[in-house]
Amino acid sequence: MARKRRLTGEPALHAAYNKTDHAPLLEAWGVSLSDDILRLALTHRSFANENDNLPNNERLEFLGDAVLGVSVAEQLYKQYPHNTESDISKMRASVVNMYALASVARELGLGQYILLGRGEQRTDGADKDSILADTVEAILGAIYLEQGFEVARATILRIFASRIDAAEVKGRTMDWKTTLTEELAGRRIQVEPTFTITVEGPEHDQTFHAVLNLTGLLQSTGTGKTKREAEHKAAAAAVKLLRDGGES
After folding, report:
1. What is the reported pTM?
2. N or C: which end of the chain has fewer CB within 10 A?
3. Of 137, 168, 182, 231, which is the active-site residue?
């Protein structure tokens, strides 16, 4: 008996997309989208590359990032009239950074709908912060194209409402780990910081050493009397390296 041939290209894309009922996803977002643009918004480059280099969602992601940024910035500007530009910038970062977007994606159950290549499927790509965040932006780009800016902005303000309301507190308590997240987001660097912690000294007088890794980019260190202090110092060192030319 002949072995069944694996689909590729457009047939593979349509088959993978049609396996799932997308009505719950659109209901969670509170919007309607055509299958054509939703399918594109959900197509990660790993799936596209494995299937004859199909179009992927990166262009929509670029568009959605812009719509998200201006929508949140405008709302923060209006909602917090007495905050400085510096404050608002930090507040915006607390709302739209990769980790915040990934959290939104998980709340909306987005991961299960993303079309991924086999490699990303094997490494749980549907729950990676970077992939989730990028797909949120791609869907926002799709909403903007099909429904216009006002609908896209209303969708953003509804979905991000609690984060915008909490932004002032987060902005006041920004730390170096958050600043690093903002720096990476601003440079569109999709590398997640990882910390390795070691401890030395007696229990009553411990010293913590943190090594922060941005894989393929840089490594920094920090030392403190608590794990938190060590991590923050390592994050501060990483921000300095980036701003001094560690990454342009």
Report:
1. 0.70
2. N
3. 137
